[in-house]
Design goal:
- The protein has helices spanning 2-14, 33-39, 43-46, 63-70, 116-138, 158-163, 167-170, 184-197, 242-286, 293-317, 329-346, 366-382, 434-445, and strands at residues 18-23, 28-31, 76-83, 89-101, 104-114, 142-146, 152-155, 201-208, 214-225, 231-240, 325-328, 349-354, 361-364, 388-396, 400-406, 449-455, 459-467.
- Helix 9 (242-286) packs antiparallel against helix 10, helix 10 (293-317) runs parallel beside helix 13 (434-445) and helix 12 packs antiparallel against helix 13 (434-445).
- By secondary structure, it is α+β, with helices and mostly antiparallel strands.
- A five-stranded antiparallel sheet has the order 2-1-5-4-3. A five-stranded antiparallel sheet has the order 7-6-10-9-8, sandwiched between helices.
- The protein is rod-shaped, with a radius of gyration of 42 Å.
Length: 472
């Protein structure tokens, strides 16, 4: 019995956890050194106190309930907030079990652990998780967690609003499903380099939205490196920069037009006056009997061509006063087709139209829109020197009217398409590029778009979209 008592006292006093003995009236009858250190009170102070004096007053401890708990003959694991001597409160987890004597409970042996820091850590973690949830659900950037094999293990809810896909649709799939097929191999190589070299990834990739829009994304990847120095997974943040790129393109286009305007004004001023004199003298020579009329006609024709180019240059150089009025698109197209019909006949080109019975009105400057269609249709005919079919179709939706002009020419290489519309760049030997540049400017000024697609050996399609007139 003496040996058991010594063992008990040794376990009690040398226990690294705080130990308190409480009788059936709530009095503290025993405390070890760890128990003193935990609450900041000395053993004599604690032995004069009741258990509820140490429990946080909010909510007020129910003394009767606490006494009833003391008398229960089962082990208890209960969280408490205990007051330290300095006034602060500690989060405590207490494991309490009854001590019996002659079959009756005489006291309880309670082991207390300070879980304040653990609880603070848990609360901080919950707070961080909640903040991350709020950020990931409301931010428009795409946040992805990608494993070492390139498979997506987490996708932020913004996937739905930005890409038109549900997060569940892309989970466990390779991240390259979010990238255009022609860019996937390069993206996979960039991803592997990030993992092998343990360096951040910065790249731009494109994505075709289910509604047909082409979006441009800035990808920033970061490898998650563990304590062992190995990459565990990667975090990728993708931002939609489509509008930014379009704005930059518009700015470049504006700078190009500004430079072109200065150049055009100078060229037009320098050559227009001499042209007038040359044309006048040629017209005088035309009345002379000895003059070779064939040469005169050739020279007059070339002067007219130069004059036409200067007029187009001036159109680019001089801001035009726009007088937009609602116009029916179909009569405009019919008049242009009628005007170009003789040229089409000479070039063996068959113009096929696919027009609705009627279209909505468009706000436009009639002469300028006619000029655009003349340029586009003439380009289509010239792309077919051996003849062919030129198709012109008109469709409309709730907001816009689309005109699609398709030829059966040799087509344009894909890498050259972005250069179309540049000054003095043309796929025609004698072309200046001004016609398409002027047409693009006119369509932009009308709030529309001009898009060109082409396939080698199959032909080229020009799509012009113009907004409908607002119904009053």
């Amino acid at each position: 019995m003496g040996t058991q008592l010594q063992l008990y006292n040794s376990l009690f006093h040398n226990n690294p956890d705080a130990v308190y003995i409480i009788d059936m009236h709530g009095n503290l009858t025993g405390v070890n050194a760890a128990g003193e250190e935990l609450l900041g009170y000395s053993a004599p102070e604690l032995l004069r106190m009741k258990m509820w004096e140490l429990i946080a007053p909010v909510p007020q401890p129910d003394k009767e309930r606490l006494v009833s708990l003391l008398k229960e003959g089962v082990r208890k694991n209960i969280p408490y907030r205990l007051r330290h001597r300095d006034g602060r409160y500690l989060e405590i987890s207490i494991s309490s079990f009854p001590i019996f004597h002659n079959g009756e409970i005489v006291c309880r042996y309670s082991i207390a652990k300070d879980v304040t820091r653990q609880k603070q850590t848990e609360e901080a973690l919950l707070f961080m998780q909640e903040n991350f949830r709020l950020i990931s659900e409301n931010i428009m950037d795409l946040i992805l967690i990608v494993d070492l094999n390139g498979h997506i293990t987490y996708a932020s809810p913004s996937i739905q609003s930005v890409l038109g896909l549900s997060a569940s649709h892309i989970l466990l799939r390779h991240f390259s499903v979010l990238i255009q097929p022609e860019q996937r191999q390069a993206a996979s190589l960039d991803f592997q380099k990030m993992i092998v070299d343990k360096i951040p990834l910065e790249a731009e990739y494109s994505y075709r939205h289910p509604d047909g829009r082409m979006l441009i994304f800035e990808f920033k990847g970061t490898p998650d490196i563990g304590a062992d120095g190995h990459v565990k997974n990667t975090v990728i943040v993708a931002r939609d920069i489509t509008e930014r790129r379009h704005s930059e393109e518009l700015l470049r286009y504006s700078d190009k037009l500004s430079a072109l305007g200065e150049l055009a004004a100078g060229i037009a001023h320098e050559i227009r006056n001499p042209l007038t004199s040359l044309k006048g003298f040629l017209q005088l020579m035309e009345s002379e009997p000895a003059t070779n009329q064939q040469y005169v006609q050739i020279m007059l024709s070339e002067i007219e061509r130069i004059s036409s180019i200067t007029s187009e240059l001036l159109l680019m150089a001089k801001p035009q006063t726009q007088r937009y009025a609602p116009n029916d698109l179909l009569p405009l197209l019919h008049s242009v087709i009628k005007l170009l019909a003789p040229q089409a006949l000479l070039k063996n080109v068959n113009i096929v139209t696919e027009f609705p019975s009627a279209t909505s009105l468009i706000p436009c400057e009639e002469y300028q829109i006619k000029q655009v269609f003349i340029n586009i249709i003439k380009n289509g005919m010239e792309a077919m020197p051996s003849g062919g079919t030129l198709s012109i179709a008109v469709v409309e939706d709730d907001q816009n009217v689309l005109v699609r002009v398709t030829d059966q020419g040799h087509g344009i290489p894909e890498e050259l398409l972005p250069r179309l519309g540049e000054l003095f760049y043309s796929t025609k030997e004698t072309g200046t590029g001004l016609g398409l540049l002027v047409s693009s400017k006119i369509i932009r000024d009308h709030g529309g778009t001009l898009e060109i697609t082409s396939k080698l050996g199959k032909g080229t399609t020009v799509m012009i979209t113009l907004p409908k007139a607002v119904q009053s």
